[in-house]
Design brief:
The complex is a heterodimer of chains A (115) and B (110). Chain A is mostly beta strands and 115 residues long. Chain A is built from no helices and 11 strands. Chain A starts with a strand and ends with a strand. In chain B, the strands form 2 sheets. In chain B, strands 2, 4, 5, 9, 10 and 11 form a 6-stranded mixed sheet that branches. Chain B is globular and about 40 Å long. Classes of the chains: A mainly beta (115), B mainly beta (110). Chains A and B meet through strand 5 and strand 10 of A and strand 4, strand 5, strand 9 and strand 10 of B.
């Protein structure tokens, strides 16, 4: 497995602002993902962060709202742009280590509240 | 019909009870099945991973997959208060995309 950290662990933001969430892994990983976990809802995949190229977004998520960077094999950022209260959620990054593309390990999450 | 259905509970049991957690799914292409445990204010932790149908046991935990019924289960024997958490089922068709259930919140009372 991999040790994954996220910053910040939580934040309270004002409507219309943006927040960048960082995900750091202690070893090189093959794939990195960003998820959203809203109260009472399933974990939902936002996008796959691709190293050196644009992220691959799932239906309902767009780059302008959730720009993602992955400059190397151990680090990625997710920005939540022009936030509204509906963006209040837990945001999680996950990684696969290469042993199996379906074994994903999750970070501790970032709890975001938008006022 | 959602791809993955999971009863959110909450489920409350006494210490030592056998716990049964279940998910149903509609996509017959799913072949990989996982259970994650998520403690409050923590990220999901991979608990069990199963490929195709059958059983897998790890200590007090047993995962079962019945592909003919599109039904998966997680059994916890001799449940402990430390098992109190939300349990998420997840599945995949072999791509990197996981589809999750909503999670079942379990409380084990001492």
């Amino acid at each position: 497995s991999a040790v994954i950290s996220q910053k910040p662990s939580r934040d309270i933001c004002q409507r219309g602002t943006s927040l960048t969430i960082q995900c750091q892994v202690d070893s090189q990983v093959t794939m990195m993902f960003w998820y959203r976990q809203q109260p009472g809802q399933s974990l939902t995949l936002i996008a796959t962060a691709n190293q050196g190229s644009e992220a691959t977004y799932e239906s309902g998520f767009v780059i302008d709202k959730f720009p993602i960077s992955r400059p190397n094999l151990t680090f990625s950022t997710l920005t939540v742009s022009n936030m509204s209260p509906e963006d209040s959620s837990i945001y999680l990054c996950s990684v696969t280590t290469g042993a199996s593309t379906d074994t994903q390990y999750f970070g501790p999450g970032t709890r975001l509240t938008v006022l | 019909q959602k791809e993955v259905e999971q009863d959110p509970g909450p489920l409350s049991v006494p210490e030592g009870a056998i716990v049964s957690l279940n998910c149903t799914y509609s996509n017959s292409a799913f072949q990989y099945f996982m259970w994650y445990r998520q403690y409050s204010r923590k990220g999901p932790e991979l608990l069990m991973y199963t490929y195709s149908s059958g059983n897998k046991e790890d200590g007090r935990f047993t995962a079962q997959v019945d592909k003919s019924s599109k039904y998966i289960s997680l059994f916890i024997r001799d449940s402990q208060p430390s098992d109190s958490a939300t349990y998420l089922c997840a599945m995949s068709d072999g791509s990197e995309k996981l589809v999750f259930g909503k999670g079942t919140k379990l409380t084990v009372n001492p």
